[in-house]
Amino acid sequence: MDADREVAGCARRRRQGGQVQSVARPTDRTLHLCRDWKFFRTALGRWRIYRRRGGGFGGGGASGDWGLPEKRKQDGRATRARAGTPRAVITKPVNRVTIVRNGYAYQLDPNAKVREVSGEVDMAKKPSRSRSAQARAGGADRRPTDDGGHYVGARFNGPTDAFNHFAQDAKVNRGRYRAMEDQWARAKAEGKRVWFRIVPVYEGESQRPSLINAWFTINDREHSIQIPNESGKKSDAK
User: Fold this and answer.
1) Phi first, then psi: what are they for 182, rounded to 5°?
2) Which of 150, 209, 133, 210 is nearest to 184 (CA)?
3) In which band, very low, low, confident or very high, does the pLDDT at 67 lie, cut at 50, 70 and 90?
4) Total Cβ atoms within 10 A of residue 226
5) Is residue 113 part of a domain?
6) Total domain count for the chain?
7) DSSP string over 57-71
8) Is the pLDDT at 63 greater than 70, yes or no?
9) Looking at the structure, do residues 124 and 195 belong to the same domain, yes or no?
10) Partner of 100 at 20 to 30 A CA spacing, among 13, 112, 164, 218?
11) Does residue 202 fall inside a structural domain?
């Protein structure tokens, strides 16, 4: 109540002899309250103007689009806008399941296609094969000239699961693909470490890869090769 009286006293004036005189000399507290009162009135006036222009405040936060300086809105997120910079197209990765067998990681998509195989090469003490898995590899897309090839060969302790097999052209299986595996085996015999990553490429819905991309390192020396799954086509090695 005392504060209200001081504010009212600050605003009250009377004319005497053509001059405006204060009722009482204002104290420091009075001057402080007067400044707060002026600030409140100014803020109140601006708020009323904002309301008349259609502004409003939504529950839990301000409503409306306040704009983003030097930014643009994209997919609900603010991203920095750069003149002359092409917009990157971001695609969501296909949902994959990773299965680890015998130290090797296999990534399968929802259609059970192998999308990637990776790991460190290990030599098997006793190689094991699955003739039935080899015979079924490729399903309806298998060709009469195909073998049941391995992503990871039996000599490297490759698993006997179906996902380690694919329909592979017989000449490619016994030719360029085997040459790559021989290179790995020689390196292991010399006590070197071999890491690899294989990415098969498919055409449409086919279960038979049309191309095998392979990257591998032998004691940190990098190699890469593209092996078409067609006899008569040359491989591209680096």
Assistant:
1) -65, -35
2) 150
3) very low
4) 15
5) yes
6) 2
7) EETTEE-S----TTE
8) no
9) yes
10) 218
11) yes
Provide the whole-model pTM: 0.60
Find the domain containing 167 and state its range.
97-237
In terms of Cα–Cα distance, which of 215, 177, 185 is closest to 123?
185
Q: Distance from CA of residue 59 to its chain's centroid? A: 34
Q: How far apart are CA 159 and CA 161, in angstroms?
A: 5
Residue count (the chain):
238
Q: What is the pLDDT of residue 236?
A: 72
Contacts of 177 (CB under 8 A, 6+ apart): 149, 168, 212, 227
Say yes or no to pLDDT of 65 above 60. Answer: no
The answer to whether 24 touches 1, Cβ cutoff 8 Å, is no
What pLDDT is attached to residue 216?
98
Specify the higher pLDDT residue, 46 or 60.
Answer: 46
What Å distances lie between residue 57 and 60, 61, 67, CA to CA?
9, 7, 16
Question: Is 80 part of a structural domain of the chain?
Answer: no
CATH number for the domain spanning 148: value is 3.40.570.10
| Residue 75 vs residue 43, higher pLDDT | 43
